[in-house]
Write a structure and sequence with these properties.
Number of strands of chain A: 19
Radius of gyration of chain A: 24 Å
Oligomer: heterodimer
Bound molecules: flavin-adenine dinucleotide, FE2/S2 (inorganic) cluster
Shape of chain A: globular
Largest interface: A-B, 82 and 81 residues
Number of domains of chain B: 2
CATH topology of one domain in chain A: Methane Monooxygenase Hydroxylase, Chain G, domain 1
Shape of chain B: elongated
Order of helices and strands of chain B: EEHEEEEEHHHHHHHH
Number of helices of chain A: 17
CATH class of the largest domain in chain B: Mainly Alpha
Structural class of chain B: alpha+beta
């Protein structure tokens, strides 16, 4: 049976849909709200904002995170900023323009109605965060400051120094802790969700492992919300925090939630290249650096001279050459691919030849070192600290790295997955970014989902579906808990020799080589062969020491790697099936004579949604066709 | 590089721990301190021994997870640097390095180098917020905030909640952590209405958690990876005195906060 994909997009004109829908949604009587219990998994921007808001509304909330505190979520690391259509700069921004930019930036693979709603609520996010005490950057007059980000033509990005994610998360975390203090939210830290319990066609709760005691526990609720983040760590090396993983969404997928567009991943062009074989992650250098830095490599392959010794006429400022109108500010996917091409030609710089220069020489000459320090001081310090080089004197070296995942669990307009009662927010859903996300839009989407969308739509669901009535000791819970306990035991029992990390590294390499910045049929088919081999080797040769009844980080890691090893396959299959190039998905077979992406709207203007069919069985594909009523598909051009 | 490591091992809460010696070979100066620890753990697994538990996540100096006392200093020898951002080029070939967990009564050891810092969350839950429900906010530009106030507020808000200040303090005081949150919120117009209640509630919770008193050693500021200045502590002390004297205090606290 194929998945039933009803997007539930409301009728009516684009800019009236959300208003109308909010009115049409059934309401839960205020006195009845405290009869409903909602589980929120994740306390990042999406989860924390949802949990706090639901509690304010009067629902009983249980919030789970594997971190030791809600404040540690990966959202904390976001640097650059958050978009909102405030038009404070009077430069012609509007809800419509933000909507238009996001649909186009996503290369026409997002659902228009969702994107429009995102642009609409973006303004309320800023108001809310200011009221919470988020110390956004200000002008001397006391008003909020903005900058232009990621090549946007208007200045709509709000920021708090280079720590916007931190400050927004602390705002949401503080709102959440306020509810914890008031007894409205029960916070379960160091608690990892291992599975969702689905019974009678409805999500009933979750099963978790207490990471300190090892206890497997069941939690019943009337609805479950996943705000568990993205899966960039399938590549092992990424800009994400080390603990980010796919377990929550993958386990939900195995229980019936469709996985949408798993091959849509974003490779960020400006990360610090890895310098040694033991590198455990890549570090992002904010995209804002491209406002002043010029990207180049030597003209000749194999040129090993120091950058200063390469005269200007022997340098190739390849972005400026290929894209004269956008130059160094082309979108992320375009910049990343261009860097890969010049490195493939043997013109890359630094160890292993996987790097390009980001050079501030001209900017320093133009505006002075002090101005550059004011603009990017903390980033330059971070770079110097990690590489031991002084970027004021020698050009930075950068290289693309996995950064964000547009794919995720499929959700309808109400943010509900294909499992009734299971909602998905933030990076975990397939969301509003289509095939490519614009800078400063992930924070916006996470908070839009959590503060302003889910709290309404979940009410509509609960008003209709009523309480669940299934207790945590019901057979449905017991059997899932038993499966989780057995899987944990199985991991501990493998008489192997290799660390979970070593398998993760092996998988990551396959994914990066075959399903990274550029993909082709041969490589993807090779990956489809290799992944099951690694998976098999894992279950034979992984070594998880210690016991399951206390803190055991190797055991946690092993479980996550095991899920990545299953998930990777559908990601590659999706990439193989999508015979076009769009956004972050570049199929080498589908490009113009100039090497630009060639979209195929006739055959692929849809969301690809995969359904789990069981271990060893091929997943089944169902398509949600996309219609563009307002923004008509065009070819992105940055020439 | 080759190093000798003395690492704290402790099976679980409340059981005795001990230092364990490891000879580490093949360390590259480009590695971060945590990547060096990864190397140690990889080898331990190969040898069939349980790896050292330590907390980490972002490895970019922002999440506040990592927490190691390296050679007696919280986050190690480099100023304004979390241990995840400390690179091995800071050390010399042949060095002996000791690695221990945060030590404080309010931070019980969970295992090896992992401690329980939930006391800090409870200090925030007591009053480290602005009581504003979603949807009730005025336009973001309705209330101008002087740039200076926003900037200093941001200096304080930069705290990553790692607890190094507590670990570095001879009294295991959480004054710098608490003062930073008070300074962040009380300075902004949005935080002013609750300023007095906030400082009272947070200080009370801080005491209840068993953190020590501040006796002006200023080790906290030295250890702080974000260089939060101790003048925020003086500021909080003044705010606390004022709040304690204010007439509404007793009544307000009885009525509950939040
Ligand atoms: C370095 C970097 C910089 C960025 N900069 C920007 C930027 O400037 N602007 C922008 O808009 N976006 C930026 N992004 C993207 C953005 O930060 C993320 O997309 C966004 O923060 C994700 O938020 P989230 O709430 O969906 O998930 P996360 O913040 O990843 O939170 C996930 C939560 O789920 C919990 N969790 C996960 N699985 C489980 C489980 N099984 N059991 C229990 N708990 C679980 C985690 O503990 C965590 O609390 C950046 C990303 C990176 C990596
Ligand atoms: S690991 Fe995040 S601050 Fe060190």
């Amino acid at each position: 049976m194929a998945l039933r994909l009803d997007s539930k997009v409301p009728s009516g004109p684009m800019d009236r849909k959300w208003e109308k829908h909010k009115f049409d949604l059934k309401l839960v009587n205020p006195a009845n709200k405290r009869k409903f219990r909602v589980i929120v998994v994740g306390s990042g921007l999406a989860g924390a904002s949802a949990a706090a808001t639901l509690a304010e509304l009067g629902y009983l909330v249980d919030c789970f995170t594997f971190h030791d505190s809600a404040r540690r979520a990966h959202s904390i690391a976001a640097q650059g900023g958050i978009n909102a259509a405030k038009n404070y700069q009077n430069d012609g921004d509007s809800v419509h323009r933000l909507f238009y930019d996001t649909v186009k930036g996503g290369d026409f693979r997002a659902r228009e109605a969702n994107v429009h709603r995102l642009a609409e609520v973006s303004t309320a996010i800023i108001d809310q965060c200011v009221a919470q005490g988020v110390p956004f950057a200000r002008e001397y007059g006391g008003g909020l400051a903005n900058r232009s980000f990621g090549g946007a033509q208007v200045s709509r990005t709000f920021y708090a120094r280079g720590q916007t994610g931190q400050q927004l998360l602390l705002g949401a975390y503080q709102a959440l802790q306020r509810q914890v203090g008031a007894g409205k939210v029960t916070m379960h830290t160091r608690s990892e969700m291992l599975d969702v319990v689905v019974e009678g066609g409805r999500a009933r709760g979750i099963v978790t492992r207490d990471l300190v005691t090892g206890k497997i526990e069941s939690w019943a609720a009337d609805a479950v919300v996943l705000g568990t983040g993205g899966y960039s760590n399938v590549f092992f090396l990424s800009t994400n925090a080390k603990a980010c993983n796919v377990t929550a969404t993958w386990r939900a997928h195995r229980r019936g939630a469709g996985f949408a567009n798993p091959c849509f991943t974003q490779i960020h062009p400006t990360s610090i290249p890895v310098s040694n074989e033991h590198a455990s992650k890549t570090t992002l250098m904010s995209e804002s650096l491209r406002n002043d830095g010029r990207v180049w490599v030597p003209l000749k392959a194999g040129d090993r001279r120091a950058p200063d010794d390469v005269p200007d006429h022997e340098r190739d400022y390849y972005l400026e050459r290929r894209y004269p109108s956008f130059g160094n500010l082309v979108p992320r996917d375009v910049a990343s691919r261009a860097a890969k091409i010049v490195c493939d030609e043997g013109r890359g710089v630094g160890p292993g030849g996987r790097g390009v220069y980001l050079d501030f020489r001209d900017a320093i000459q133009r505006v002075g070192k002090d101005t550059i320090r004011q603009r990017y001081g903390n980033l330059f310090d971070m770079y110097a600290n990690i590489t031991g080089e002084d970027p004021y004197a020698v050009p930075m070296r950068i290289y693309p790295a996995p950064h964000y995942t547009m794919g995720g669990l499929w959700v309808d307009y109400d943010l509900m997955s294909t499992v009734p009662g299971l909602f998905v927010v933030g990076e975990a859903n397939f969301s509003d970014h289509g095939a490519n996300r614009l800078g400063a839009s992930a924070l916006m989407q996470g908070l839009a989902d959590g503060y302003f969308v889910l709290p309404y739509t979940i009410g509509g669901y609960l008003a209709g579906a009523g309480t669940s009535g299934l207790k945590a000791d019901a057979p449905a819970f017991l059997s899932v808990a038993k499966e989780c306990a057995e899987r944990t035991k199985r991991l501990l029992a493998v008489p192997g020799t290799r660390s979970p990390d070593s398998f993760h590294i092996e998988l990551g390499k396959v994914m990066w080589d075959e399903c990274g910045m550029a993909r082709n049929r041969t490589g993807l088919e090779r990956a489809l062969k290799k992944i099951p081999e690694i998976r098999e080797a894992f279950w034979k040769d992984v070594r998880v020491l210690g016991t399951g009844d206390r803190l055991n980080q190797n055991l946690e890691k092993a479980g996550r790697v095991a899920d990545f090893l299953e998930f990777a396959e559908v990601m590659v299959l999706d990439a193989l099936t999508r015979e076009e190039s769009c956004g972050g998905h570049f199929r080498e077979e589908h490009q113009t004579s100039e090497g630009e992406a060639l979209r195929n709207d006739k055959d692929f203007q849809h969301v690809a949604v995969w359904e789990w069919k069981g271990d060893g069985k091929a997943p089944e594909l169902t398509k949600e066709p996309l219609a563009f009523e307002v923004v008509h598909p065009s070819t992105r051009s940055y020439k | 590089m080759n190093l000798t490591l003395h690492v704290w091992r402790q099976e679980g809460p409340g059981v005795p721990g001990r230092m364990e010696r490891h000879e580490v070979a093949g360390v590259s100066p480009d590695m971060s301190f945590l990547e060096m620890m990864d190397l140690v753990n990889e080898r331990l697994v190969r040898e069939g021994k349980e790896p050292v538990a330590f907390e980490h996540d972002c490895r970019e100096g922002i999440c506040g997870c990592c927490s190691m006392v390296v050679n007696g200093a919280a986050h190690g020898p480099k100023k304004a640097t979390t241990v995840c951002q400390l690179h091995m080029r800071t050390f010399k070939d042949g060095d002996t390095i000791t690695v221990e967990p945060w030590r404080a009564a309010a931070f019980p050891v969970v295992r090896d180098l992992v401690v329980d810092r939930s006391a800090l969350d409870r200090v925030i839950a007591a009053g480290g917020f602005v009581s504003v429900n979603t949807g009730s906010a005025p336009d973001g530009n309705a209330i101008p905030v002087p740039k200076e106030a926003a900037d200093v507020s941001m200096d304080a808000a930069a705290c990553i909640g790692c607890g190094a200040c507590v670990a570095a303090c001879p009294n295991a005081s959480a004054m710098l952590f608490t003062a930073a949150k008070v300074a962040h919120l009380n300075r902004l117009p949005q935080g002013v209405p609750e300023a007095a209640r906030r400082v009272r509630a947070m200080v009370e919770q801080m005491d209840a958690e068993g953190f020590g008193a501040c006796t002006n050693h200023y080790e906290c500021m030295e250890a702080c990876p974000k260089e939060i200045p101790v003048r925020f502590i003086a500021e909080m002390n003044r705010a606390w005195t004022k709040a304690s004297l204010s007439a509404e205090s007793a009544a307000a606290d009885k009525a509950g906060f939040g």
